Amino acid sequence: MTPQTAATPPVTGLKRNSLGLRLWHWTNTLVVTGLLITILFLYVIVKMKTVGPEFQKVLAAEGVTFSKQQVRGLTRIVSHRIWDWHIGLGVALSVLLVLRIALEFTQNGAQRFGAKLRQARFLFRQGGIDLQDNRHSLLVKYSYVLFYLMLVVMVVTGLVLIYADDVEFLHRLEHTVKEVHNFTMYLVLAFTAFHIVGVVYAELTKNRGIVSDMIHGGGPAGE
């Protein structure tokens, strides 16, 4: 009996990365970067516990005396403004996530992430001399699955936190949801760091052209 093998997707005139996916990728990169920058400002650069005394020193040098309560009010203005940016970027991320799901169903077959994942699994199961490269390709695809799941968690928990003060049921869950949201943020930060390092390493070794492919579209889909 001849063993059954999965058919290799036919090479078409389509590029590996569609225009929609490329636009989504770079827009999503900017939004996620913006979200992480707002967190960096809130918890590191302009940490409210340390900014307050610094405000008092600057004002005192100008001959203006503010009480701790008054300075706390000033720091809240800064904090709230940054949180407004964070919330706005979070809503943008929610829209991008919906668009990514829609893109998966509207792209041509070989351009879909699901098709690329199935092809990576098939090549890995074949073994052969390219087993190590195929294993790496499959692990990269699974890391993207993990990233998409993290985005889902970030978006869902973020939306819950936005409306937690207006909905009693959500308010009761606010503390737990906030913990999950913050933990997922660290996971996204770790993924982003590993992704950048991986891309730079690939570009400097034998997998050159990854960045170019995400700009120009790459080779034919299904190749």
Automatic annotation (TrEMBL):
| Localization per record | Cell membrane
Q: Where is the Cytochrome b561 bacterial/Ni-hydrogenase domain?
A: 18-217
| Gene3D superfamilies noted in UniProt | Transmembrane di-heme cytochromes, Chain C (1.20.950.20)
Q: Does the keyword Oxidoreductase belong to this entry?
A: no
Pfam families documented for this protein: Ni_hydr_CYTB (PF01292)
Enumerate the InterPro entries for this protein: Cyt_b561_bac/Ni-Hgenase, Di-haem_cyt_TM, Hydrogenase_cytochrome, Ni-dep_Hydgase_cyt-B
SUPFAM superfamilies referenced in this protein's UniProt entry, alphabetically: Transmembrane di-heme cytochromes
Q: Where are the transmembrane segments?
A: 23-46, 85-103, 145-164, 184-204
Please tell me where this protein is predominantly located: membrane
Q: How does it sit in the membrane?
A: Multi-pass membrane protein
Q: Any idea which UniProt keywords this protein has?
A: Cell membrane, Electron transport, Heme, Iron, Membrane, Metal-binding, Transmembrane, Transmembrane helix, Transport
User: PANTHER family this protein is in?
Assistant: NI/FE-HYDROGENASE 1 B-TYPE CYTOCHROME SUBUNIT, NI_FE-HYDROGENASE 1 B-TYPE CYTOCHROME SUBUNIT-RELATED
Task: Give the record's family classification.
Answer: Belongs to the HupC/HyaC/HydC family.
Name recorded for this polypeptide = Cytochrome b/b6 domain-containing protein
**Organism annotation:** Hymenobacter volaticus
